[in-house]
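chain below, 624 aa
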Amino acid sequence: MKTKLLLLMAIGCTAGSALAQNNKNAPMMKKVEAVEQPKKYVVYQVFTRLFGNKNTTNKPWGTIEENGVGKFNDFTDTALQEIKKLGVTHIWYTGVPHHDVIRDYTKYGISNDDPDVVKGRAGSPYAVKDYYNVNPDLAVDPAKRLEEFEALISRTHKHRLKVIIDIVPNHIARNYKGLTNPKGVKDFGADDDTSVEYARNNNFYYIPNTPFEVPTSPDYKPLNGEVNPLSDGKFSEFPAKWTGNGSRMAKPDINDWYETVKVNYGVRPDGTKDFPELPAGYDEKDYAAHFAFWKDKDVPDSWKKFRDIALYWIEKGVDGFRYDMAEMVPYEFWSYMNSSIKMKNPKAFLLAEVYNPKEYRNYIKLGKMDYLYDKVETYDHLKAVIKGNALPDALSDIQNNMSDIEHHMLHFLDNHDEQRLASPEFAGTPEKGKPLMVVSATISSSPTMIYFGQEVGEPGNEDAGFGKRSRTSIFDYIGVPHHQRWMNGGKFDGGQLSNSEKALRDFYSRLLNFTLNSSAMLGKFQEIQSVNRKETQNYDQGLYAYVRYSDDEKLIVIANFSWVTTSRIDLIVPEDIIAAWKLTDGSYKVKDQLYGSSTVLNVVNGKGTIHLNIKPSESFIFKL
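prediction:
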């Protein structure tokens, strides 16, 4: 979830430190292991509710009975094997924690959710209702929903894939109710002093003596106006709490995250911190030192609650987390939380949704995040290029300016928040997205993420009800047509794909598997764009080129973002690179690592050139 304004409120993103102490219910910590060396990873984000749905009805606002829903069990051995073969190392199962949903599960002891404070019919995965259990929609037997997810964790591990789930620390569902809390765990807000706006150990912020009011709009009716006994324009909450995006109004705006309430991390309403700073120099210390710092400190209650939630799932075998809107929570909390996780599992994969480039290093170095979204710079610029609003050249400066943290900046072109890569609002066709994918996956050592269906050109064309076209809806029961054709009724063999869709998936498999096995992907980046832009004849606007190299692998990458122009050029490999590669004058065979074509690098007087014809939307990864 992200606000369209991306407003980083002082209450959520003030830098500072925190006080923490292990509570006695926390699991025992294992001996610290050596930190794993950097590797190239590929994350496959899958919206769990939609992945296995075979129903193709796609009625706007449709029910489960009308539109269907996927289950944990749909991730069969065959499905997981095919995902692995695509070149994937980690699966992010999005929408697993039990969130609000408009469906009657009362016979399982689950209270009904009020449509007035739920977005869509299937509900937002970022309005979590019970952090110690999973979405009952995803289980064949909702009474055994946790066991079914545990089986999926085991099945995923069997195929040598790691499991990532969401943690949403900034906010929880307005009607949070922990039905399956472990012994000794109290619900959020259970001990809050609701007579005051703020107290350090309150889990929420309050609007004292004021009832909550449901937001209204002439353009929106819950469930599209469908009659529901709970849909009456009212929701009982007294006193009202601050809303998840920080609104302090008892009646939030319809565009606020009104289905959620903001969690208090010990940041006062004026933005000042109610916990101590990390000492100077802790940006250079490892997670073990951070853990030791917090061990004898007292911390706000919300810190302990979320740490215990994370460690609960680590105990279940989850290998990492994607943290929603992490910069709306102070990074001192992340130091506390992430160091606790790393002490339990040093290889845990910790990914944060962060959009403020000025804060990147704080969340990596002080917050101990492994990876952050590279959305605002690399993603946004690639989107501008393919839409014809920018030249690709600025990618070089983006990469060079992040050289100290580039391994930590996860690259993607598609996810649940963004417009589908193949949609008319983005690249327009899956093929036009291919050069973006080559650059996104190869320009740095950072992990690459793709969103299920991206590899077969899913454009997100459906009007799902609450969710509209260009994004695959996370709020509705809906089918994902291109993905369903690959799923082929549960065979997961691509049997219904068109030839172009099969070719696209083959492209993704070739590219992703190459990045996993290339030592140059962990080596040096150097742009050769500027010299070619200046000196190469017919170097068209849509071209972008760079080299990646290690001691034992030398790569020359060029992508053509143009979808109309074939470029015929003599690509320059400048003298400093030829010297770094220790090449003497002569001819050297170079082979494309995507499709196997070969050509020649000619070195004359210490300067290299490659004669190329590069078609629209074509890319080459030449290996020396």
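The chain is about 25% helix and 15% strand. The longest helix spans residues 499-517.
thats it, cya
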